[in-house]
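Q: Could you fold this chain for me?
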Amino acid sequence: MSGDSFRNRRNGFQTMNGGKGAFPSSGSIKKIVTIVVLVIAVLVLAFNCTYEIKEQEQAVLITLGKASAVTEPGLHFKIPFIQKVKKVNTTIQGFAIGYNKSTNEVIEDESLMITSDFNFIDVDFYVEYRYSDPIKAVYASKQPLDILKTISQSCIRTVIGSYNVDDVLTTGKSEIQSSIKEMILKRLEEHDIGIQLVNITIQDSEPPTARVMEAFKAVETAKQGKETALNNANKYRNEQLPSAQAKADGILKDAEAKKTERINEATAQVERFNAMYAEYIKNAAVTKERMFYETMEEVLPDLKVIIESPSGEMQTIYPVEPFNTQTQTQSPAANGENMQ
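A: Sure. Below is the predicted structure, expressed as structure tokens.
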């Protein structure tokens, strides 16, 4: 291509684009870039110099490596690129030990434990916590939540290992929870990582296999039957005691009455004997004869006379009383004849 043709084409191109001034100069490009950079910097500074703290939330403001707590909710300002903010949620949160919280599946490595009587048992816990000191929660340790979980698992296994399997399954749950909570609080106080334990509860406790679970259920049913039988026995005892007490009181009263009656009777007989003895002393022969007749009056009405033949065979039995009656009946007639 010749030099004349090249110049003609360049002139034509300039004519098509509005002449020589259609291309921007290097100074214009620098101005545009500067304006864009300034706009971006302003936007960055505008969005990076404020931060918002929500309710039940605290922040840690870091100024050149020095941390300070910001506890008031609302909009706050900070110096861009010099101050940094880390927010901490202070609401009560929780995590599960022994099972997956989302799927509710058992995590055997966490739930399987051994009791003091060398029985295996699956126990699930739920731990509730909150961040009490945001600065310590951010700077005291790298993973404070992992530390809390490790402490909780250690305390749980220590306490479960000091109780027998029956206590863990039935009656000792409240005491176990209290012991675990007290031990965790003591450990957290020693570590001082800015986390506060709110509560720990046993979600479930059961034997690790189906056969063992059935055996434990049978044992639990037997214990409930024992408690029911004891309650029924106590109820029956409480119902029968008043009746038995009343009968015992009646027997005692009857015995006291008979005792008094016997004493009075014996006293009267003694007095009668003493009186009779006094009369006997005065006139022994007459008193002895009177006593003989009185005794005969009591004995003869019941006396029966048996008359036997010379051969020794019994013939007739005659009571004495008819003879007395007959004698008393004939006596008036005889007396009448004599009177005539």
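A (continued): Residues 50-87 form one domain.
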